[in-house]
Amino acid sequence: MSQRMINPFVLLLMLGICMISAGCVNTESEHTSAAFWNLSPDGSIGFSIPQSTTWEQILEKEENLTTTDLTFKGFAGDVHAILVSPHDPVAFLVWAPGANNPAAGYAEYMKYYPPHGVGVLVMDVRGNGGLTPGYPMNIEKDAELFVQGSWPQYYLNGVDMITARRYLQDKYPGIPIYAAGDSNGGRYAAFAAGVDPGFAGYIGISTSGFHRMGENYQSPLREFLLSIDPDIQVGKIPPRPIMLFHAPNDTIIPFSEGQKLAQSAGQGAVFIPFNGTHGVNREVDDIIITRLTSGLN
Q: What topology does CATH give the domain 8-293?
């Protein structure tokens, strides 16, 4: 389940030249459909999100788990997801898959978790080629939408994870819910956990930040790039727990990039090398399950 990564740094450089030369210095929030964001100069961002409705269809019910197809009907269109849940959960993960991986491609893999008491809600990330419409991660396009006062898809992917967290919290009150993801999905999950204190913590696999590139640009590009940067958002998650996993043999995102993200997260973050290359991995799954079921909150 690995994938070739978009190079965000090339896109950021191109975008910086384009946006600064154009002299775009407007808008930091949008107030439409009762949904808006508030963005601070340091990249801190908060959302006001209207309540969504959820359509549910049980796909299968086994002895140790139930698989449910979900559709969140919100202000920015329908978002699909698949929930694999144990009958007596101790924790949940809201998981954003890596680029080009729809929820349907991860659902079977994630059935490993529920027999151990951990449920996984797999997001059908916008732009990953699944049922949820969208375009692959494109920071240049998102920034253009941002300065126009429209919703960048990066923001919407974070909002979708927050919506999923609220759904689980209502359905399973008192059960801790973590934002998790691999590769590009790990970036979205860092954003969601940094923005939403309702997440119990953050788990990132084979992922990285953008090196605070926004600090090299002028407003409004500066604030937007800081707000989506995992290197910024992971610093807003503590004292909630952070687990980061990276393989020394990762051929997509270098191991050193994962180490830099761990440094941004601070001393409380747990950084764990694993045997493999890039993306989801059973060694990682076992560590996550052990930590969650042993009382990590």
A: Rossmann fold (3.40.50)
